[in-house]
User: What shape does this take?
Amino acid sequence: MGGVLLRSKKILICDKDKAYVDALTHFLIKSCPNYEITSYTEEELLWEEKEKFDLSLLGIEFLETLSQKAETQEESSLKHQLGEILYLCDARAEDFESYEKLYKFQAMDTFLGRLIKKASKREASNDSIDTGNQHITAVISPIHHELELPFSLMVSQWLSEERKVLFVDLEPMSILPQLIQQEETKDLLDFLYQLESQKQEQLQKDISSEQKKQMQQQLLSEYIFYYQGISYLAPSQNALDFSDVTKEQWLYLWKVIAQSSYEEIVVLYDGFMPGCEKLWMESSEMILLGREGDYYQKSMYQYQKLLEHMKMQSQINQISLPMSAAALMDGTYQMEELYLGNLGRFVEDYMIRRQGVARAGG
Assistant: This one.
């Protein structure tokens, strides 16, 4: 299994003043170790560059040449390659087209603050997720109920009777393979690694958004497995590697899933993870699983306060699962056994009520 790839922001600096460019490059490398800094003082070298940047600071000569290249239809692809462009100039410079100015000679903490703010805004815009008409059900058990996994699977199975369903188990070390008696050779962490590798390759190529989407969906299809009418991503089996996944990578995974043809997404969250607040906000419905008892109710209350603070717009359903796995005999914690028992009947009653409410509301 591959490790998780990390990607830093790529900043480009281009200006004819070599002494200034050298000094600024040295300053940014020292001040922003998580940024990759590239700089040029000769135009010919820039136009030969194949790298794709997040943010480009261009002096007037470079901007003028970029503008001239519009006549040869090169400007569009170049601007795509250069990312967001700022006009690097002194305070007396006149405006150039519609480019936002970034003054060369100002307090460096102000300069750096502007730069970081721009890079952060671009990252935030890249985090946006369009879930379209997908209905996303998030299942969370603040008390880590031992039946949260089979409960989530049963909900997925009920939904699959009418819609195309994808189940995503985000437990760091899931027992799903044992529960459904299906061992897979590749899992969610492998998919994240390949997805990040593909993303880096796409950044080096000039391909359309539609082509990127097709490549992403093709890769997703290679990691989809099936169980009794539902599709699922084989969950993580390595909690250590799971903890290395970044917020950016989780959100990118969700973008890819959001562009898929699945109508219903059921996600089991084991707890907090990087980017979970954004993922939770994208949910259509959140199910909080608990059980009777003062201790469990206090834990549920803490979660409710957090969700209220987040101003969750999704519907929140609090469910108390009265049954336990403690009474199960060895070898009976399997979906077939659980589906025929108290949990199966409980989920059946819940889903019939849920679907009745949904139809009445529709």
